[in-house]
Amino acid sequence: xxxxxxxxxxxxxxxxxxxxxxxxxxxxxxxxxxxxxxxxxxxxxxxxxxxxxxxxxxxxxxxxxxxxxxxxxxxxxxxxxxxxxxxxxxxxxxxxxxxxxxxxxxxxxxxxxxxxxxxxxxxxxxxxxxxxxxxxxxxxxxxxxxxxxxxxxxxxxxxxxxxxxxxxxxxxxxxxxxxxxxxxxxxxxxxxxxxxxxxxxxxxxxxxxxxxxxxxxxxxxxxxxxxxxxxxxxxxxxxxxxxxxxxxxxxxxxxxxxxxxxxxxxxxxxxxxxxxxxxxxxxxxxxxxxxxxxxxxxxxxxxxxxxxxxxxxxxxxxxxxxxxxxxxxxxxxxxxxxxxxxxxxxxxxxxxxxxxxxxxxxxxxxxxxxxxxxxxxxxxxxx
Amino acid sequence: xxxxxxxxxxxxxxxxxxxxxxxxxxxxxxxxxxxxxxxxxxxxxxxxxxxxxxxxxxxxxxxxxxxxxxxxxxxxxxxxxxxxxxxxxxxxxxxxxxxxxxxxxxxxxxxxxxxxxxxxxxxxxxxxxxxxxxxxxxxxxxxxxxxxxxxxxxxxxxxxxxxxxxxxxxxxxxxxxxxxxxxxxxxxxxxxxxxxxxxxxxxxxxxxxxxxxxxxxxxxxxxxxxxxxxxxxxxxxxxxxxxxxxxxxxxxxxxxxxxxxxxxxxxxxxxxxxxxxxxxxxxxxxxxxxxxxxxxxxxxxxxxxxxxxxx
Lengths: 383, 311
Fold this sequence. Notes:
B: 311 residues; MetI-like fold; flat
């Protein structure tokens, strides 16, 4: 069987990734040009660690966006002839090399890794975002108002946090659970929060200007209801928005496991910030509680929240990988990194390199996010 | 102090009951029970037969009644019967908990001194070269989850260098087959605990009393040892205890990865095999472990911190 050597492998690897390199070069040169106007991101140029993190994260984002241009093969296409081949084996009928080798069904590992980034980079940030909205919507009043509301919510948050994550996943992401309506109910509850949050933002700002308030509320309700029906109950009247039941199940479980942590963080930050002078000033001006929470406290908590969100997306990526590793939730064909690790790890005695693409991809993406968080924290401390 | 402990214990019991109820509800959902019926009685049962089987075994009663019955038995130490092992759950679960206990013991014995040392060393002089290097090291180790590092260690240390075995056999522990699982968990946890220790050390080193001690002419090292360390190590103590849910997840991953048949492996296999009583018992044991460590951490924190102890 025809093979190519390792220098040629890396040559093809770098050549195939050209869209990512071009996009990275453009992003970095534009960002460097305007670094004074970019705030914390601009400061990252003085921080090599954070810059490396940003580079890795952007690399994966562009790899996911341009996956169709980068990948050499269809990620799901199997080939009986080329099973568990080492890196560099050439598919002689097509004349294209499997630069990272193939898995046990003869699928190209490089292409699967690239397409896998699409799944990971979509679900992890989206789930973190929803978890953030849930955590903020509940954490702000819990920290600001306190009292019974806070006691009950903190108790519930501690309840979820006391669960070992893996046990939670085995209970919540299971074929049996998908036969019930529990995932839909969970998603139904979680997806209400973004709508409620958007309504609260608009209402607290424009409550005295009805000519702006009512049109924007109407827009939020229409778009919100449309997305809500499509995502949570798969019943979009236009048939445009839908989500796979497996993915919905994973999404709901991940949000469920992540939002209590965000809640605790936001609650703590709120309790700290509400003692500041500008909050007292707003109270003296006669601003309502809602306005103070959303327009005084939340913007001032953004520093720690942004740093934490980088860490949390990394953590969610690890969680998704854990789900894949245990074969929970994802479809068996799915090229997401966790499932790839699960599918390939039994063969490391035969072909040790078989498991490297998904493992290194996952580790590098999480490392990038953590380095970025570290850089952002360092720079925000300096200011 | 006694009132504080008493309150904590009340909350603990409340939490335990809530959590065990959630686990109970999720384990005994309809599809799982149907699968159980098909497995236990006859694979080719009709829908009506399944229903009558469930009726006969008491799964049709209201959830709260079933839960009450299970709780009553569990309190007296009877966790039911394993349908997979065909033994009482108690005979299945406790030996496995023991195997995992051994693993945890070695992990903690190695992790705690190293991570505290790294954390104190890098937090001692914030921003120094040592600090940056150690911080980046701990960022890297926390970025690599156990299912990645475990596989990489297996490839490098077991397949290429042939030092250790890639499979760990519970009950027959040798250095060769036990080193990799321990190493995998240790590397991940060191990063995390070291980061927490560092943060706490940095905070203490910036405190007024440390500055005062320095200004009155004490040497740097004696300030670190006499003033800073005692206060800086309180936070890592709670972190190590609160880390338990996470540590447990890591243990489950590692046990699955290295085929070490301990408690974590049991959780996974019981859920996969729809072994309802074992899954329930595992869930409860895990939750009790986590909550107990949280209680110890709360009490320990209050005990170690004189500001709370005397108020």
